[in-house]
Amino acid sequence: TTTEELQTLVLTTLDSKGSIENTKEFKASDGKEVDQLVLLGALKSLVDKEMVEYDTIEDEIWVLTDEGNEIVDKGSHEANVFEAIPAGDEGLSIPELQKLLGNAAKIGQGKAFKNKWITKKGDNLIRAVNSIIDQTRIDLDIICSTGKHSDPNVIADLKRRRLCDKHKIISYSVTKGPKFSLTIEKQARDITFEMLQSGEWKKANFKKYNFDALGIPPSGGHLHPLMKIREELRQIFFEMGFEEMPTNRFVESSFWNFDALFQPQQHPARDAHDTFFIKDPAVGTQFPTDYLERVKKVHSVGGYGSTGYGYDWKIEEAQKLLLRTHTTAVSSFMLYNLAQKEFKPVKYFSIDRVFRNETVDATHLAEFHQVEGVIADKGLTLGDLIGFMETFYEKMGIKNLRFKPAYNPYTEPSMEIFSYHEGLGKWVEIGNSGMFRPEMLEPMGLDPEIRVIAWGLGLERPAMIKYGLENIRELLGHKVNLTMIENNPICAFDLI
Ligand code: PHE
Questions:
Q1: Can you give the pLDDT at residue 475?
Q2: Does residue 326's CB lie within 6 angstroms of at least one atom of ligand 1?
């Protein structure tokens, strides 16, 4: 039955009878029962037009469970046990009864004994009475046809045996409203241009505004989990007085990505296996000339107390353009710029994408995000770096750090940072850090007393742990499930 048909039915019934006591008795024109939920929709729109008013009637009925219905069909388990046992002294053995009735034999036996319908003779079960009345079946039958039973104890017992269950049913009583009429006038939803022009708006019947209606959830603007974690981290950095570095240059020269960082030109990481080099344009040529000369010198013959690497440094190698392999390329550019001004201590950070030509698997992608932090001041020590790491990670909810000596061409000393992961039950690497080498800082023009501590960590690993993802491809790339992006919760580090 459609909403319109139901509305006509309600209105004509009200017209002839004055009121509808209970819509439960209401029958549609085809004689079928009316779905009360569909009826509610029909009533609500009549209420909006003030044509009717209604009250809700709540009623409870008892409904049989599947097992209850089966008993109405085939008799109770105890009655079936009684019927299975032949009259007379011979009786039936328990295994034979089990064969006949299966699982029901066990449940039925107990009840049949309790009712004193059967008894034991030797190993066999025999009938103890001539005939029985299957009261359970009779009671269930009453409930099945009326939805009720006069004896609350019976209901309680049957409910305990999971043979019947309480259901709420909702129906309505309906009366005429102030604007009752047999015809439903169409209501205008909006004032239109035509209505204004014709003056029709003056007598139009407008649909009432529903201030309780929920808005349509916006379909756009969901933040990716990585971006949520990035935002959380940015707030930690800002809170600790850091400035964000501009990371909008995905394409860098080898000079800023490697050479400025005292990374020798033969370093395996510069090899095409790890770095995506750019074909067109293949080179960049704009470098600060003096600085470039100093970098060349420190690599080839040394300086600033260092012997250098002692190899023939080539500008062609430094000019090669690439997709930056780490955001430390940005740090080197920023520190060079810092050295060109009067010194003041700085704290820099960035969180952005880097690229590595790696075999893609469940935990590696060719592009990922790095979190980078740099602090420059006079007289900083390794103790400052360790102390700072502890504060920084604690704000992410990570305590218990361990530091392991490591190697980076641009830091000395260098330390990998580990944290104990409760879920995995082992120590996992969560960052790399160190103090930038004089061979990197002094050619930039920084005062030898200035120390720079720095560290880097991946963004994907904490995100995967936080959002319970096992495969990095579920987080990033073309296989990402958009529903996951829409529905994932906000990120809060103390919950990791
Ligand atoms: N650039 C390093 C990496 O890619 C991280 C790092 C940054 C290490 C700064 C030391 C200092 O792993």
A1: 85
A2: yes
Structure-block tokens of residue 311: 């190899």
Residues in the chain where the model's pLDDT stays below 70: 1, 490-496
- Dig out the tokens for 233 from the structure: 């981290």
Q: What value of ipTM does the predicted structure carry?
A: 0.95
Whether residue 455 has its Cβ less than 6 Å from ligand 1? yes
Is the C-beta atom of 436 inside 6 A of ligand 1? no
pLDDT reported for residue 495:
43
Which helix (H) or strand (E) is 53 found in, with range? strand 52-64
Q: Minimal CA–CA distance to 171: which of 3, 38, 14?
A: 38
Long-range (24+ apart) CB contacts under 8 A made by 131-140 are 132/79, 132/82, 134/75, 134/76, 134/78, 134/79, 136/71, 136/76, 136/78, 136/79, 136/163, 137/71, 137/72, 137/75, 137/76, 137/79, 140/64, 140/68, 140/71, 140/72, 140/164
Question: Do the Cβ atoms of 429 and 417 come closer than 8 Å?
Answer: yes
CA dihedral 62, 67, 72, 78 (to 10 degrees): -120
State both tokens at 382: 């390794």
Q: How far is CA 243 from CA 66, 237, 238, in A?
A: 67, 8, 7
Reported in sequence order, the residue ranges of 80-117 that DSSP labels E, i.e. its strands, are 92-93
Phi and psi at residue 89, in whole multiples of 5°?
-80, -20
Give the residue whose CA is nearest to atom 8 of ligand 1: 433
Look up residue 41 and give its two tokens. Answer: 């929709």
Are 108 and 98 within 8 A, CB to CB? no
At 420 the pLDDT is 81
CA–CA distance, 396 with 417 (Å, rounded to integer)? 14
What domains appear along the chain, each with residue ranges and CATH number? 1-76+134-213 (3.30.1370.240), 226-495 (3.30.930.10)
The pLDDT value given to residue 162: 93
- What confidence tens digit (pLDDT) does each residue in 214-226 have? 888 777 778 888 8
Q: How far is the CA of 328 from the centre of ligand 1 (A)?
A: 6
- Ligand 1 atom at minimal distance to the Cα of residue 374: 9
Question: How many CA within 13 A on the CB side of residue 140?
Answer: 25
Provide the token pair at 75.
């008799």
- Note whether 371 and 460 are within 8 A (CB): no
